Amino acid sequence: MILPIVAYGHPVLRKMCEDITPDYPQLEQLLANMWETMYASNGVGLAAPQINRPIRLFVVDSEQIINSLEEDEKKDFPGDNGIKQAFINAHIVSTAGEEWAYNEGCLSIPKVREDVYRPESVTLRYVDEKFQPQEKTFTGITARVIFHEYDHIDGKLFIDHLKPLKRRMIKGKLEDISKGKINVDYKMIFHK
């Protein structure tokens, strides 16, 4: 089932999310809905707060980005073949490498894209869909998408990484989004 995406301005996007247990109600269906919602909205990642659930859960499909790159662009991301994976109860163990810019957007902040600087790699501790503990390091585009989705479960948005001048320049667009003055081809939830 395709779920509505929470728009900028909704308080759930600013909540520090909670870990969940294996008996979380209908987790398998929730994950299936998140994948379906992400693809229907042309996203490459989706975090639970974006569908109005303040829990530490997100899904990432960076394979679609990697597969869309030209061969000469792929060399910029050695060892990153992309992933299609769910992350439950994720917590960052460490980050490494120099920060680099990439033009990010967000389903909750439609039609706003800005360059954001993030480290080259991230090591995460999390559980998979079977609640098996995992600890892995991700690099390149995959790390980028993970950082972005991880921010959501910590109550942060990609615009929080922008310099104050850039934030002021997009203030009007953000206000329009929070008031529902935006047209997108997917259903959104606006805070009243």
Automatic annotation (TrEMBL):
Residues that, per the record, bind Fe cation: C106, H148, H152
Keyword set includes Signal: no
Pfam families: Pep_deformylase (PF01327)
Cofactor: Fe(2+)
Single GO MF annotation: metal ion binding
Active site per database record: E149
GO biological process: translation
Keyword Protein biosynthesis found: yes
Catalytic activity reported: N-terminal N-formyl-L-methionyl-[peptide] + H2O = N-terminal L-methionyl-[peptide] + formate
Cofactor: record remark: Binds 1 Fe(2+) ion.
Keywords: Hydrolase, Iron, Metal-binding, Protein biosynthesis
Top enzyme category: hydrolase
Top-level taxon of origin: Bacteria
EC numbers: 3.5.1.88
Family the UniProt entry places it in: Belongs to the polypeptide deformylase family.
Function as written in the Swiss-Prot or TrEMBL entry: Removes the formyl group from the N-terminal Met of newly synthesized proteins. Requires at least a dipeptide for an efficient rate of reaction. N-terminal L-methionine is a prerequisite for activity but the enzyme has broad specificity at other positions.
UniProt protein name: Peptide deformylase
Organism of derivation: Chitinophaga pinensis (strain ATCC 43595 / DSM 2588 / LMG 13176 / NBRC 15968 / NCIMB 11800 / UQM 2034)
